[in-house]
Design brief:
- There is one protein chain.
- This protein is mostly helical.
- It has a single domain (about 5-15, about 25-155), classed as dinb family like domain (Four Helix Bundle (Hemerythrin (Met), subunit A)), CATH 1.20.120.450.
- About 55% of the residues lie in helices and about 0% in strands.
- The chain contains five helices and no strands.
- The chain is globular and about 50 Å long.
Length: about 160
């Protein structure tokens, strides 16, 4: 017997790809020259690296929040933003992209397998699993938009 919330789960899983209504993260950074990854554009608050790492750190935090009963929130803003506007290496850039993709896949699997998306997360009054998944989708979409704007302001 199919689950009654199967359409919701399918929609959330697709939305976690962040490409339904706009450019996805991978395409947003494709071809960005390494020399621009650590530059803050004039009029912009964050470099592409800062935005990429923030997406990674925040997504991982939300995933941990959903799955780990021992979850402890990190210190703001230190735990959610990189220390430097520039990546330490091209390898770090790729590692961040890979980690985002792996955690996105873990989020999709979580959406598919968790028994009750509407369940309140123990110890976090009023915060549900569904809320956290929606927040991950919204948060990443917002910062992908910022990445695209930074790229445009940097002339790439």
């Amino acid at each position: 017997m199919p689950r009654s919330d199967a359409p919701l789960r399918e929609h959330l899983s697709r939305a976690l790809g962040w490409e339904s209504a706009h450019l996805g993260l991978v395409d947003a950074v494709k071809g960005l020259p390494p020399r621009l990854r650590g530059r803050r554009p004039r009029g912009g608050s964050h470099s592409p690296w800062e935005l990429l790492e923030h997406i990674r750190l925040a997504q991982r935090d939300l995933l941990d929040f959903c799955r780990d009963p021992e979850y402890v929130e990190g210190d703001w803003p230190a735990a959610y933003w990189p220390d430097s506007p520039a990546p330490p290496s091209s390898r770090a850039w790729k590692k961040s992209l890979d980690a985002i993709a792996n955690d996105r896949q873990a989020f999709k699997e979580f959406v598919e397998t968790t028994p009750d998306l509407f369940a309140e997360i123990p110890g976090h009054k009023g915060k549900t699993l569904l809320r956290s998944v929606l927040l991950a989708i919204d948060h990443t979409s917002y910062h992908v938009g910022q990445l695209l704007m930074a790229r445009k302001l940097l002339g790439r």
